[in-house]
Write a structure and sequence with these properties.
Keywords: Oxidoreductase. With about 600 residues, the protein is α/β, with parallel strands linked by helices. It is built from 21 helices and 22 strands. It folds into 4 domains: about 220 residues, Pyruvate-ferredoxin Oxidoreductase, domain 3 (3-Layer(aba) Sandwich); about 190 residues, Rossmann fold, CATH 3.40.50.970; about 70 residues, no CATH class; about 110 residues, Rossmann fold (3-Layer(aba) Sandwich).
């Protein structure tokens, strides 16, 4: 046996929804981030609350890609597949590379298990064309029971530790420090130390099994970090990073943070996370429905807080009336839309980018609203911070788009320093306007002044009816409505956003364009095309309304442009509307899954050759 160094590796944990694959994957990714590896994860689980045990539809997966340098995607296919039962092997083998190592629990491949997984024979490996020499066949369940025989735990409790044995085996295979894993478990189960120690014992047993038997593997692999930037790091999901971004923005602005929300997959974790931080002045309210969640956040903004509401696509439909109220009242509000597969209930646990046009235009009347889209799990922090800054400084509701892929996925995140974050300066009404101020008086940039209730001399009323621009009284005057409509639009147009950045070749034959969470896959596709000798560049939109000022100049500079998105062409249509003469190629998929880099490379190569 020898230890071989790799630049990157992809591991996929799979099993029943109750087998703890998400936890095993999270621990492995956290340990990898702790030692400085680049990571990208992809939880892939069914919408069933608890699918029948051993069924093909109930398989839950967690894929983690670790690298010596920066990692952009969870990987197209895995180098190691953990399959806890027959159904997991049957459904997840498609995600394994031809030479992948496969770890299975032979105790879960009995006749009934094979029948549920729709295998025709008992030779399941031969039936799937899998080389037995690549399979670590371990009686995992039996060994876990033997390991915990003296623990006093019942059979059901012991079976819940099976995922830790598989994790221990993977940790051996990739030379991971078990002390880091033990520390994670002792912290997670701080109130149940007996559970923590039982899991640690099982992980050690899995590691020992690999070490003592060499587990049919030729080598142990190590992924060493090539470049280390000093700082404090953590493995963070997009939802947690979003929550932290809101907390940081409220802290920087000197305001309380209020979240009014109604639970909905895949956004609920933001509510869960923020509810843990009352010590930071965070107020969370689980409301009775979507519109009350949004309306209560708007009320909090009127009262002088940073109002936030979180949801997914179906919830945005229901919140739209209250969002429009925020537009006409000109109050700060952040609407977080963690996109999922639609329409209607659609695919609750899968990811899409199909809410873009709804975010831009899905309201009655002329109701302009800034829209941002986070590009990665770690970028969710900055996107949330910038969305809050934009809402507070320009007195407007802002839509922040993430999606299930980056919300549930994770990456290595360097904790920022509060002192280095951008300042947030809300346009409070100046004291010298006391006695002369009316509710729709504006600062030089067109932003309405913010008067917090309780300031003597600044009492006022806001509402959903159109107001006179001078007096603030209800007005149906045609010229006044035209003026107010233009003022609300101009306020959004005046917002300064960073220029659109272009990575890659300045003289590229093809520019790859996307928005939000597809950044990593499109960047990887660009890298692979450049490695083949093609001249390629990439431009990824984070700011969608207003668009960066150099948008037209960038898009019209290149001979060929392809817009790739996980919808039927919403960004392409929007850019055609905004940029005269822009006619791009399009790559569109709506599968509820992230892009596959290999498919992108093949499609883009065809466009270049045309």
């Amino acid at each position: 046996m020898e230890v071989k160094e790799l630049d990157q590796v992809v591991v996929r944990f799979s099993g029943d929804s109750g087998d703890g694959m998400q936890l095993a994957g999270n621990i492995f990714s956290t340990v990898s981030a702790t030692v400085g590896n680049g990571i990208s994860t992809f939880p892939d689980y069914p919408a069933d609350i608890r699918a029948p045990q051993g069924s093909l539809t109930g398989v839950s997966g967690f894929q983690v890609h670790i690298g010596a340098g920066k990692v952009y995607t969870p990987g197209d296919k895995c180098d190691v597949l953990v399959a806890m039962n027959a159904a997991a092997l049957k459904t997840q083998y498609r995600y394994a590379k031809p030479g992948a190592t496969i770890i299975i629990d032979t105790d879960s491949f009995g006749p009934k298990d094979l029948e549920k997984a729709q295998f025709a024979t008992e030779d399941y490996l031969g039936e799937m064309g899998i080389d037995p020499d690549r399979v670590i066949q371990c009686p995992l369940t039996t060994m876990v029971k033997d390991c915990l025989a003296d623990s006093g735990m019942d059979n059901k409790a012991m079976l819940k530790c099976r995922n830790m044995f598989a994790l221990g085996l993977v940790c051996w295979l990739f030379d991971r420090d078990l002390n880091l894993v033990a520390n994670f478990l002792r912290e997670k189960f701080a109130k149940k130390p007996a559970i923590a120690e039982a899991n640690i014992k099982v992980i050690q047993a899995g590691w020992d099994y690999g070490h003592n038997t060499h587990s049919s593997a030729i080598n142990v692999y190590r992924v060493e970090t090539k470049e280390k930037t000093p700082g404090r790091y953590m493995d963070i999901t997009g939802n947690k990073a979003t929550a932290y971004g809101f907390i940081a923005a409220a802290e920087k602005a000197g305001l309380r943070l209020y979240l009014g929300s109604y639970p909905i997959t895949p956004a609920t974790d933001v509510l869960h996370e923020l509810s843990k931080h009352k010590s930071c002045g965070v107020i969370t309210v689980q409301c009775e429905d979507e519109i009350s969640g949004c309306a209560s956040a708007l009320g909090a903004s009127f009262a002088g807080a940073l109002g936030v509401t979180s949801t997914s696509g179906p919830g945005v439909c229901l919140k739209s009336e209250a969002m429009n109220l925020a537009v006409i009242m000109e109050l700060p509000l952040v609407v977080l839309d963690v996109q999922r597969g639609g329409p209607a209930t659609g695919l609750p646990t899968k990811s899409e980018q199909t809410d873009l046009l709804q975010a831009l235009f899905g309201r009655n009347g002329e109701s302009p609203m800034p829209v941002l889209a986070a590009t990665s799990p770690a970028d969710c922090f900055d996107a949330a911070y910038q969305a809050a800054k934009m809402a507070l400084e320009h007195m407007t509701p802002v839509v922040l788009l993430t999606d299930a892929y980056i919300a549930n996925g994770s990456g290595a995140f360097k904790l920022p320093e509060m002192a280095k974050l951008d300042a947030i300066n809300p346009p409070y009404v100046p004291e010298e306007l006391k006695g002369k101020w009316t509710p729709y008086m504006r600062a030089e940039n067109g932003t309405r002044y913010w008067a917090i209730p309780g300031r003597e001399g600044f009492a006022h009323i806001l509402g959903g009816l159109e107001k006179d621009s001078n007096t603030g009284a209800i007005s149906t005057n045609p010229e006044n409505h035209d003026l107010m409509t233009r003022l609300r639009q101009q306020k959004i147009d005046n917002i300064q956003v960073p220029d659109l950045e272009v990575d890659g070749d300045a003289d590229a034959d093809l520019l790859i364009v996307g928005f939000g969470s597809t950044y990593g896959h499109l960047h990887s596709a660009m890298d692979e095309l450049k490695a083949k000798g093609y001249k390629v560049a990439q431009a990824q939109f984070k700011y969608l309304n207003p668009l960066p000022k150099n948008t037209a100049a960038v898009l019209t500079k290149y001979k060929k442009v392809v817009v790739a998105e996980q919808n039927m062409g919403q960004l392409a249509a929007y850019l055609r509307m905004k940029v005269d003469g822009f006619v791009p190629y399009q790559f569109n998929q709506v599968k509820g899954q992230p892009f596959v880099v290999e498919e992108l490379v093949n499609a883009f190569e065809e466009i270049i050759k045309k």
